[in-house]
Amino acid sequence: MDISKADKIAYSYKGERGLDEKLIREISAMKQEPEWMLEKRLAAYKVYLSKPIPKWGGDISPVHFENIYYYLKPAVTEKKSWNDVPKAIKNTFERIGVPQAEQELLAGVKGQYDSEVVYGSLKKTLAKKGVLFLSMDEALKLYPDIVKKYFGTIVPMGDNKLAALNTAVWSGGSFVYVPKGVKVELPLQAYFRINSENAGQFERTLIVVEEGASVHYIEGCSAPSFSSASLHAAVVEVIVKKKAKVAYTTVQNWYKNIYNLVTKRAWVDEGGEMRWVDGNLGSALTMKYPSCVLAGDGAKGEMLSIAWAGKGQHQDTGAKMIHLAPNTTSQITSKSISKNGGRTSYRGMIQINKGAVGARSMVVCDALILDEFSRSDTYPLNKIFEEDVILEHEAVVSRVSEEQLLYLMSRGLSQHEAEAMIVNGFLEPVMKEIPMEYAVEMNRLVELEMEGSVG
Q1: Which helix (H) or strand (E) segment is 442 a member of?
Q2: How far is CA 389 from CA 299, 333, 358, 360, in A?
Q3: What is the pLDDT of residues 143-154, one digit of tens each?
Q4: What confidence score (pLDDT) does residue 370 get?
């Protein structure tokens, strides 16, 4: 079965194209949300209308916002048992490995189909420890006080136009809450799939990890092939309390008609640690810059990123590290590959505020260009307002040379094997930091992208 083809799914609700206040009220009413969430949605809609479309990154003009379906509800409610999920949806998630992943590797799993979460579970042992892993809609019903306390505090609606849009029409996404001192040993995972042409997916993810606790959250993304552009505009907010540890891994393989415009940000308190691991191998355009606000003494932030751009693709990715407190540390390791006329861009920011004495930051930004038609750009921005700090920035752009290929081929490798070895060696510093089962998936995706890629 071909995952790039749309599934035949019945929808209980498919709104009109375009966005207005009436649709926002309908979404909130169907979800039976509290009045404060409706008010937040409507306020965000006004902010969305007032803000311009970003012009500084990739070309978003193929996205016709007035032609998008902003809310699609499959004719199925969230299921706790895999056996209860409709066959067509089950087939999709089986193809991307949700059942095996849950059984063999994961503490919990969520599957989001268009605008709604349709499958979710959590190991009983974690539930007994007070760990919450729900869809955002379910969390809003069952734990409204926690959601209200943190929703929109790390990524406010006024942050950017797409964040405002997400706040206005968000649906689905994951809610994770880990109580003080609880270590979640196995990853929690979510899969997101856009199944409809001209659809928008606007999941909202909120992760709150209390003092001394830890969790690893993994998301995978896919979409079938359509001639018209679809939009994915998610918002992720992560709160890392004192001495807590959070890892957030994304393995993204959107089809090449998706415009992936995402805002991800973490707030890290004293002694806390936040690690983003980002693999971007699909989409027509990705604009994504996971961020850490290092707010407490000794807080740590890290970003490990792989971006791959082929024909017709632009991966505009990077990270932001904002040092507010003393002795904070951050590290960004970005690896990008462009081929067949693809374009990669690293866009990053390091900001060290006054008073962040002893802060340290290191940026390593490497680009590999596989042919003469491709392009790579680097747009670093450093804002340093404190003297007693250390900032290191290293950037290298390289090509696969004929000499490298000839040397490896003289040792008995085919040209394709030689090319793959060079690419894998380039990516290895990031790949070795990804959990093994997901590094295997990333390597498989890279191998598929490598077919006939050089020259």
Answers
A1: helix 436-450
A2: 15, 19, 5, 6
A3: 999 999 999 999
A4: 85
Category of 153 on φ-ψ map: left (φ > 0), alpha (ψ -120 to 50) or beta:
alpha
Category of 86 on φ-ψ map: left (φ > 0), alpha (ψ -120 to 50) or beta: beta
Residue 264, both tokens: 């991800």
Copy the structure tokens of residue 149: 């306390």
Cα 326 to its chain centre, rounded Å, is 29
Residue 404 tokens, joined: 């490298």
| N residues, the chain | 455
- Pick from 17-21, 121-125, 225-229, 288-292 the range whose average pLDDT is largest: 288-292
CB 261 within 8 A of CB 234: no
Band the pLDDT of 124: cuts 50, 70, 90: low
Contacts of 171 by beta carbon, 8 Å cutoff, 6+ apart = 27, 31, 71, 115, 116, 137, 202, 203, 204
Contact 145, 134 (CB under 8 A): no
Q: What is the mean pLDDT of residues 210-227?
A: 73
Helix (H) or strand (E) run with residue 404 in it: helix 402-410
376: pLDDT strictly greater than 90:
yes
Interatomic CA distance for residues 389 and 283, integer angstroms: 38
> Has residue 31 got a pLDDT over 70?
yes
